[in-house]
Write a sequence for this structure.
């Protein structure tokens, strides 16, 4: 009868756990990003707590307000820049429809191998501009619907980001108590190896955060240099936007491609070509070199495990997989390593 009572209690506890997971399902993404942000910036929280002696709530509120300002200002700037770009693109389309393409640059014919083809294509587009717009007009509605759907997704992402910034306050304030609770729970599950796996997960997440933030800072700096060389106005704002967009996959082209298109509209074709090459091979290319290096730096895991975790996690879980993928592979690799290490002494000392 006692065993049946214990089994019933365990079933009830599992049902309660499942119900709790079901209730929290809509907030998993916001909770995840709040936890990652709090963990990555925890040294700042410790510093503020020391400056405000023992006042953890005040330090958490001050740091959360700082994050809100840091995120809200670029978003407002992004909204104004998008509105300006939309007006510029609309005016450019109307000008092209009425007057056709601008005069073909003389250097276009001198491009090796494809110069004649580029010149013929330019002249054909200029001659058939009205017919081209008539052909494209039926697809404008579909493009508008697609942009509307993307705008809804972006709005949902902004709301999720706002919720994450609210939740990060509670992670700052109650972080030590949450860490102690997780440590005690892992000790009940795996015993003395709890500290090892906590350090493993913490180190993996920290390296991934350093890789993501470091790569974004490098891309933002390189983008600002490219915009300054090309003579694009608003270099600082565009550099900050590149930093923000670098946090999402394939984000930087959303900044430098409109800038190159603006240079084309100003008939600065040479600088537009330079910016396109700079964006493709320097701004976007640094992501493939710097991020894996920073993520694998200082860890004991093989580089191939980290790379597979990063890219496989992105494909499997989206942007959250950038952190989940390496963490899961790191824990699995460590578990297998511990299992093999325990099996080796037994195989070397067989029983008589």
């Amino acid at each position: 009868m006692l065993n049946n009572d214990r089994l019933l209690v365990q079933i009830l506890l599992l049902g309660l756990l499942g119900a709790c997971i079901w209730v929290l399902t809509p907030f998993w993404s916001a909770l995840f990003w709040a936890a990652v942000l709090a963990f990555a910036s925890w040294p700042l929280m410790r510093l503020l707590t020391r400056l405000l002696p023992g006042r953890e709530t005040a330090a958490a509120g001050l740091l959360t307000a700082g994050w809100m300002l840091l995120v809200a200002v670029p978003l407002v700037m992004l909204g104004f820049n998008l509105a300006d770009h939309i007006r510029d693109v609309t005016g450019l389309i109307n000008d092209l429809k009425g007057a056709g393409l601008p005069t073909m640059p003389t250097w276009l014919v001198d491009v090796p191998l494809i110069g004649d083809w580029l010149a013929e294509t330019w002249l054909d587009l200029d001659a058939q501009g009205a017919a081209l717009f008539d052909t494209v007009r039926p697809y404008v509605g579909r493009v508008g619907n697609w942009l509307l759907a993307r705008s809804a997704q972006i709005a949902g992402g902004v709301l999720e980001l706002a919720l994450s910034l609210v939740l990060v306050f509670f992670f700052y304030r109650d972080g030590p108590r949450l860490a102690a609770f997780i440590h005690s729970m892992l000790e009940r599950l795996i015993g003395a190896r709890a500290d090892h796996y906590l350090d493993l997960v913490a180190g993996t997440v920290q390296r991934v955060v350093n890789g993501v933030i470091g790569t974004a800072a490098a891309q933002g700096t390189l983008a600002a240099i490219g915009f300054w060389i090309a003579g694009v106005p608003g270099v600082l704002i565009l550099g900050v936007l590149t930093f923000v967009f670098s946090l999402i996959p394939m984000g930087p082209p959303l900044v430098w491609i409109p800038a190159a298109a603006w240079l084309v509209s100003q008939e600065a074709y040479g600088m537009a070509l330079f910016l396109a090459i700079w964006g493709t091979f320097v701004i976007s290319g640094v992501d493939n070199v710097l991020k894996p290096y920073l993520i694998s730096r200082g860890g004991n895991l093989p580089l191939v495990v980290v790379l597979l975790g990063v890219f496989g996690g992105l494909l499997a879980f989206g942007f959250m997989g950038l952190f989940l993928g390496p963490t899961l592979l790191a824990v699995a690799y460590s578990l297998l390593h511990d299992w093999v290490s325990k099996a080796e002494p037994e195989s070397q000392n067989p029983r008589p």
In short: The CA atoms of residues 92 and 265 lie 7 Å apart. The mean pLDDT is 75.
